[in-house]
Amino acid sequence: MMDDTDAQPDLFPALARVVRGASILFWCLPVAMVVSIMSTLSNWTDAAWPMGMLLPPMAFGMLWVGLWLLGAFHPQERVWQAALGQAQPPTKNERYEILMSARDLLAGRADEFANLIRLEAGLCMRETRYEVGRAQEVFKFAAAEALRDDENIFSCDAAKTGQARKIFTMREPLRLVAAITPFNHPLNQVAHKLAPAIAAGVPVLLKPSSKTPLTAIRLTELLYEAGLPSAMLSTFVGDRKTITEALVRDPRVDLVTFTGGTGPGKHLTTIAGYKKLCLELGGNAPLIVLRDADLDLAATLATEGSFRNSGQRCTAVKRIVVEEPVLDEFTAKFVAKAGEFVVGDPADEATFIGTVIDEPAAIVLEERVAKAVAAGAEVLLGGQRNGAQLEPTIIANVPRDAETVSYTHLTLPTILLV
User: How does DSSP assign 93-133, residue by residue?
Assistant: First the structure.
């Protein structure tokens, strides 16, 4: 979150626009509200007061101008200056203490974060509690790395012509990192990017998914409480054009770390310029079951791997390839095991599968299932949608050219038997 302290006299020309925009908002918001209420509740008519019809749109037009001027201000500038201008990052021990404090604070607020993830992402409590536990481990491991010294010393005289002296290597933190995270793990994905950066002493500009920003904001507040200087972390919420692309394009950013869809990831590579990129763009992972496999274990692993986290994991099993001699037996066991997963209210402790991220995502998958069936596939389990909730779905006899097979990042609760 941005810190408004230590403001510089020349905060860039855009600051003047935000002041003007705020002034217009200050005057126009109450005017717009009063005029609209009076126009609605009074007995004025266009004949009695022709301006009665014009004032509401005029006032709201001025309101939108104020909002536009506010949007024209780029708060990244102040954040960048703060991050790049800090005299010294925290010491190794300070970074260790911050990370361990964050872990302890997160452990003490595990239920709060688990419920926040549930409310924001629709995941069931079983999954959100697991995610909070994983995030705690991430901070613990990062704290250990903060203390580790991996610098090296080499003897020059190991070479035939070398002299009796030493060479040593040092690791220096990057100046600034932009971290962009997805919706499927609102806490753990953010922790995976922030904790190592804190351990290394690197300032981070964080842009969480616009679908799940609240968990990232709450974690940012927790890290400040743990002692992290505000210049070390700034969290942005906004659309891709305004925020994400501005972060990626800026030459002051040394590294962009992005986890998300393949299409957006590829796009970022075209605008990033000359900087380091760390991209994790999902997958389309198969599970292969051979004839000598323990089929009960295979069915359990297939179910867990396919439908945990409502299927919204880059490491989730997307399709299963089974040797023909055991196909029927494995299919029966798999369908029976998957049928045990309770679909329901994410707040209910008995629920195994809550919702996917939103209804449009569920509709997309529903359409892909319908296309596969139209092409000759058979739905063995599930396939029904209720709003943003989709039943665990198993499809067999899927043509190899079907969209459900070729799609590279199908992070939803559907599994294909090939």
Answer: HHHHHHHHHHHHHHHHTHHHHHHHHHHHH---HHHHHHHHH
166-168 vs 393-396, strand pairing mode: unpaired
Sequence-ordered list of residues with C-beta below 8 angstroms from that of 4, at least 6 positions apart, any chain = none
Q: In terms of residues, how long is the chain?
A: 418
Dihedral angle of Cα 318, 321, 322, 328, to the nearest 10 degrees:
50
Query: In the sheet where 393-396 sits, what is the strand order?
Result: 285-289, 317-322, 414-417, 393-396, 378-381
pTM over 0.90: no
User: What is the Cα gyration radius of the chain?
Assistant: 27
- Catalytic residue status for 280: yes
* C-alpha separations of 345 from 76, 83, 114, 131, 353 in Å: 39, 42, 15, 18, 8
Strand partners, 378: 396
- Residue 278 known to be catalytic: no
Q: Which of 280, 304, 359, 403 is catalytic?
A: 280
Which whole-number Å values give the CA distances from 399 to 372, 395, 404, 411, in the listed order? 7, 11, 9, 20
Q: pLDDT tens digits, residue range 256-293?
A: 999 998 899 999 999 999 999 999 987 778 899 999 99
* Contact residues for 89 (Cβ-Cβ < 8 A; gap 6+): 95, 173, 201, 202, 203, 232
Q: Specify the DSSP element, H or E, that contains 152.
A: none
Q: In whole angstroms, what is the distance from residue 304 CA to residue 338 CA? A: 8
d(CA 370, CA 391): 14
Helix (H) or strand (E) holding 255: strand 255-259
Catalytic residue chosen out of the listed positions 127, 314, 366, 391: 314
